[in-house]
């Protein structure tokens, strides 16, 4: 075997080894989280709190956190914030992106400059808090939605797609008497479905995973979203009692099993939704990048 062939085989072996190690670093912790949440209390106790391969399936941890207590309530709040926030964000982003893509829009250039400036400079923590406070949004779920309802990056992506639409389609629709709203609704939005799907994924993941806004604006623990509960009871390792879980009078599984079950529930929605949107993801991002 020649030296070049040996070097090629060695290089491939090294790449395969690195890939296997990288996959193991990702898969093993995830497998451990799922396994620990499903393992029996005895096995979790014997293993010292972390199980890789459960000997059986025990759903007591999931039954405990879904019994109607703080975790159940936080899941419903996160679902509401994510659903309402994503729909609102896509709507506002699409409308603003369309307006910025039309050359005849009043103040188009200046508004676009403001959007681009916001990509470089953030308002800061204290000014943001004061704005939310003055709007009367403190301790309301709208404080988790409105401050992040429009992101400049997503506006730029959607605008780039709208700019790339053939002018012949727009001019033809205008000659048929279509208004600007009809152009946006019946031409712009249907053709931008891939880009809007990507933007919606960005917004949805952001709303679902966000905890800092809740930590900043929500002091009422009954209005905490799932991620803030996750931070409080998993990251900070605060103990969850039977009353917190709505399972008073029932024996609880180990705290580790409960914490791992909360982690799994926080991950599952994104893992389930992403494969259905993956085919739009590459198309939407590449289209926006090329046409921008």
Automatic annotation (TrEMBL):
Domain ABC transmembrane type-1: 75-277
Pfam family, one: BPD_transp_1
Keywords: Cell membrane, Membrane, Sugar transport, Transmembrane, Transmembrane helix, Transport
Membrane topology: Multi-pass membrane protein
Location, primary (coarse class): membrane
Family, per entry: Belongs to the binding-protein-dependent transport system permease family.
Protein name, UniProt field: Multiple sugar transport system permease protein/putative aldouronate transport system permease protein
Classification lineage: Bacteria, Bacillati, Actinomycetota, Actinomycetes, Propionibacteriales
